Amino acid sequence: MLEQLPLYEQAILTLAAMVMFTSFALLAQNRVVPMIHIFAWQGLLVAVTTALVAFDSGKHDLYLSAIMTIALKALFIPWLLHRLVKRLGIDREEHGAEHPATVLMIGAGLVIFCYYVAQPIEQLSASVTRNTIAISMAVVLLGMLMLISRGKAVAQVVGFMSLENGLFFAAVAATHGMPMVVELGVAFDVLVGAVIFGVFFFQIRDSIDSLDVDQLNRLSEQDE
Amino acid sequence: MTALYLTLLIPLFASILLGVFGNHRGAATFNVLATLAGFVASVWLALIVLKHGPLGGEAGQFHIDSFNVYLIALTALVGATTSFFSAPYMAQEEANGRLGPGRLRLYHASYQGFLFTMQLALTTNNLGVLWVAMEGATLATVLLVSLYRTPESVEAAWKYFIICGVGIALALFGTVLLYFAAARVIPDAEHALLWSVLAANSGSLEPVVMAIAFVFLLVGYGTKVGLVPMHTWLPDAHSEGPTPMSAVLSGLLLNVALYALVRVKILTDGALAAGGTHSPHLAGNLMMGFGIVSFTVAGLFLHRQRDIKRLFSYSSIEHMGLMTFAFGLGGPLATFGGLLHMTVHSLTKSAIFVAVGHASHIARTQAIEGIRGLIQTQPAVGWGLLIGTVAIAGFPPFGVFTSEFLLLSATMKTHPWLTLPLLSGLGVAFAGLFRHLHPMVYGERPEGQVAVPANMWPVVLHLVLVLWLGISIPAFLADWFNQAAILITGEGLL
Questions:
Q1: Cis amide leading into B229 (omega within 30)
Q2: How far is B177 from chain A (nearest CA, A)?
Q3: Which of B131, B143, B183 is facing A196, going by the closest CB pair?
Q4: Cis before B397 (ω within 30)
Q5: Residue A115 included in any domain
Q6: pLDDT tens string B100-136
Q7: Which residues, 6+ apart, have CB-to-CB distance to B447 below 8 Å?
Q8: B55: which strand partners?
Q9: Which of A95, B47, B207, B343 shows its CA 20 to 30 Å from the CA of A195?
């Protein structure tokens, strides 16, 4: 089956598998600096996919969005996180999930679920597209799982940004990129979002003396 | 087109200017002037649409029709009146020592930036840009939620950022899927996300992909509408941020998110109806389900609130649930009611938050227990809060009554058994509001409680408008609602 596909589609599938692998690696990683590094690799993989799609489809504006992805997701945001982690002095802290094995099992279940959801699309599209849609959906949900299972602000941000990588991957691999005005707008939002996250690290630390967002539990609907 | 550009550019430039010069003394006045100018531009735009019909053409980047034109004017109006309230209110906050000039600069720049994203979301024809604007609205307001830097406000802001960020990311995934479906039908990739083009071709979009896309968009934009169970950010953000922001969040942001949802529902309905799937009303049924759950749960939560702003933010969730239900129900009567409810809820709720802001200044607390004897202390604020709450609870002759009545009659026609949860939900919500309201406005005035400088005319203006809409809807507005109902459901009411 696989060797019958054109080389380009094989490459896309390999990259998709690698993006999903980095998602699982993020889910399993509990040290903050390696986590940021894995996230940077994931950004790089998405950027490579974008460049590959640009090369294959001849859509030159996709090169621009590949460059934007590298600049934002593989360089700027990891650099920003790195610097913040150093300045806040939390680069040696453990940021893992409480039950890593359970979380990974749930992650595997999510991937199967995504393939199940993407199954009906089969009739209208090549198997490559179905796979990439299922995988990008899985990366989105795995990012969400990471957000839920971690109690530390930095890990949550990495989960959030990895979730966005899944969106970018879907946009590039399944639809050959969104219209340029949308790509630019999304990139701008991601950039502003990353800066605001940085601001929040300091606000949270000033208010609770740590970045353990599990301690942010004053507002809830419980009886006092 | 000039009117359209002015509507968009005035808040954008005002935001930039206030970001640079916002710590000058005249910033609050400039904020008021800019929102007034934006309001004039939006009225001009509405007049053009009234005279010449829909604006924007087949494949333009902007699209103004009867569904969004009144929302644009409404957004500008609520933005303007709230800025009138905000000027003395924020000055008082500064005098109380809760804020410095730097924070005020952030506040004013964000306020205008928020209005810009709202107008962009409403006017754009491109569903991708709509998403960008909705995310922009989160980014513009999130630092306002933590403006006071208390641990509670930082927590609320973090929750708001993460929950809305994830929600809106799911909406982007839905948009990508939508684009995936559209790209096979519409040859020009640059036009494949334009709503007008998609609506013209909705019958040929792949129904399975559209159904999956709609689920993601519903959860995504539904988070911003405040639908249960994605609502948890809403009471926190409303209660911890400055009150003018609560007014515009409740009055504008929730409406615009619902607007986005209805726009994609039109497309999904078109695709599912033509695709011959076994569930052509999937979108409507999902919205009805989320709507009625939100309505019921929020009504019950009203009873156990201790904070006055949380109380009214749960009331917002309740009303957004009702509107989502109305649009999900479909049919011209329910849709007409939903459109009217969007208008009157927005006007009434922002008026209530203005009164709440003054009330919490009088009592120096937001705790319901601490707010007593408002009518004795400052009759204008007390009566404003009382009449506003009477209006929002759905008493005749206010507009909320009219829209709820329309919705109930529509439900009676198609789903008679659902009128029971609706009616009992309205009763529960009414009791939830008034058990807290009664002691606040009538109770004994505490020792040493004095009146504060208050600007009540936004409340008066909004409530008069709501009263007017309850007694007689002006012909042009009814015509817009009717045309929008034709757009959404395919048939008109009038």
A1: yes
A2: 8
A3: B143
A4: yes
A5: yes
A6: 888 889 999 999 999 999 999 999 999 999 999 999 9
A7: none
A8: B64
A9: A95
Both tokens of B72, joined, read 């644009």
Mutate which: B103, B152, B177, vs A, most A CBs within 10 A: B177
Give me the domain span that covers residue A39.
2-210
Residues sharing a CB contact under 8 Å with residue B361, sequence separation 6 or more, in sequence order: B89, B92, B452, B454
Is the residue at A184 inside a domain? yes
Eight-class DSSP state of B64: B
pLDDT tens for B13-29 read 999 999 888 777 788 89
- The residue count of chain B comes to 494
SS3 content of chain A, % helix, strand, coil (to 5): 80, 0, 15
Mean pLDDT score of chain B: 92
pLDDT confidence of residue A122: 57
- Mapped onto helix, strand or coil, the DSSP state of residue B62 is strand
d(CA A190, CA A180): 15
d(CA B24, CA B22): 5
User: Is residue A38, in this structure, part of any structural domain at all?
Assistant: yes
Q: How confident is the model at residue A222 (pLDDT cuts 50, 70, 90)?
A: low
| Structural domain count of chain A | 1
Record the pTM: 0.94
Per 3-state DSSP, what percentage of chain B is helix, strand, and coil (rounded to 5)?
Answer: 80, 0, 20
Average pLDDT over residues B145-160: 90
Query: Is the complex ipTM more than 0.95?
Result: no
Among A50, A113, A175, pick the best mutation site for testing chain B contact (most B Cβ within 10 A).
Answer: A175
Q: Could you tell me if residue A114 is inside a domain?
A: yes
Residue of A nearest to B128 (CA): A182
- Please report the beta strands in B302-396, taking only residues with DSSP state E, as ranges in sequence order: none
The DSSP 8-state label assigned to residue B444 in this structure reads P
* B395 close contact with A: CB closer than 8 A: no
Amino acid at position B232, single letter: T
Are B294 and B258 contacting, i.e. CB atoms less than 8 angstroms apart? no
